[in-house]
Amino acid sequence: MKTLYFSTVRSPRIKELDKPKAGVLAYVEDPTEEELQELVEIHGLDIDLLNDGLDPNEAPRIEKLDGRVYIYSRFVLKEEEKGTTSPILIIFGLDMVYVVTKKSFTDFKKLINRDDIITSMRAKLLLQILGTVNSGYMQRINTIGKRINGMRAQLDKAHIDNKVFVAVIDIEEAINDILLALDPMNTLLNSLLTGKIIKLYEEDQDLVEDLELSSDELSRIASSQLMTLKNIREAYSTMMANNLNKVFKLMTSITILMGIFTLITGIYSMNIALPAENSPNAFWIILGVTSAFIGFASYLFKKNKWF
What is the pLDDT of residues 272-281, one digit of tens each? Predict the structure, then answer.
């Protein structure tokens, strides 16, 4: 699906066009083979670089070919979707800007509805698209932060569900995916800041610097969250190991106490002469002695906090 958007300084209201022209923003989502061929034949784009932009494992980078700049990045998917990030290719063409993505870039609609979007100002538009990508990461990182705080609040609970560990693993995978996208993004923004790849005005340079600072801050926050998550996981593991040790101690104590009873009753079940065997109170004597031993052992176990 391909949609063409156009606006100028004199006519800032964005409108959709049927045919491309200079200053247009082309949004291409999940393109067919015919649409890819159209981008190659009519717009002069490279088919191999376009296919790289649709590769789900593509990492952020910059390529320059035939006067066009291919900027590979990754944006955050909705939480209900499989995976955390998806590739997005932003092409700074000769007179147009292209956005090519395999999956729906949900924040793109918010971008188009903004009042400050002028598609004919290509350099600024490119940076605004990258800013929208960064905003998606900020929202996801904030959501993850709330989930982590909720897990920390549950650390004092005696019962720990396996679902907690599954949630920890899911969040760890999401943070790692985010870091894999953000770290190369900082290098990408540094390259743009030099002005050698795309000519930038002073205002554009300020935008790149803001993006670089934002991206670097997001990386630090994500790394901090990953460390916090590891600490929570270790805390949960320690608590579970401690609870398991308590169970083992209790079962071992019970086994020892029952062993005392089994030993004494086993001795008096032998067919030999034994003390008090002829006494009419032999049963109560044996029971009393056994109870005394068990009570003394229980006192020692309790004193040493074995149960």
Answer: 666 766 777 7
